[in-house]
Amino acid sequence: MAQTPMTVVGAQKLREELEYLKSVLRPRIIADIAEAREHGDLKENAEYHAAREEQGFCEGRIQEIEGKLSNAQIIDVTKLPNTGKVIFGTTVDLYKVDEDKEITYRIVGDDESDIKANLISVNSPIARGLIGKEVDDVAVVKTPGGEVEYEILKVQYL
């Protein structure tokens, strides 16, 4: 399986979620199952079936996170030389020409993207249009609504 780029922050969040699932949620679910078993007949025991279903979701998420972390190529942009170019992990201040407004995006891995937090996937049209550009360059991004022009104001390796 190909390696997936991930920021240090994204990898840390996944590790924290994994730790929570293994050390807090999993033991609680096991206790819930044990308690539900004590209530007798398992065929008609809704608590037992709900706990088993929750256990399935929890174990599936644990496997998913472990898989993502094992295939992650963790990139610490702060340790890379600042060439001024937009690359994975950089924070980019942009001027959106058609709306006459400034916006800041951080280019992250697919699993970390959250447009509300201005974290855009490296595979998004905006990120693809910005990668390799420098300050004062204009990136023309093809979107479903047409072409959008962004002028790069600042590139930070945070």
TrEMBL record:
InterPro entries: GreA/GreB_C_sf, TF_GreA/GreB_CS, Tscrpt_elong_fac_GreA, Tscrpt_elong_fac_GreA/B, Tscrpt_elong_fac_GreA/B_C, Tscrpt_elong_fac_GreA/B_fam, Tscrpt_elong_fac_GreA/B_N, Tscrpt_elong_fac_GreA/B_N_sf. Gene3D superfamilies: Transcription elongation factor, GreA/GreB, C-terminal domain (3.10.50.30), Transcription elongation factor, GreA/GreB, N-terminal domain (1.10.287.180). The keyword Protein biosynthesis applies. Keywords: DNA-binding, Elongation factor, Protein biosynthesis, Transcription, Transcription regulation. GO terms for molecular function: translation elongation factor activity. It comes from the Bacteria. Necessary for efficient RNA polymerase transcription elongation past template-encoded arresting sites. The arresting sites in DNA have the property of trapping a certain fraction of elongating RNA polymerases that pass through, resulting in locked ternary complexes. Cleavage of the nascent transcript by cleavage factors such as GreA or GreB allows the resumption of elongation from the new 3'terminus. GreA releases sequences of 2 to 3 nucleotides. This is Transcription elongation factor GreA. It comes from Oceanisphaera pacifica. The gene is greA.
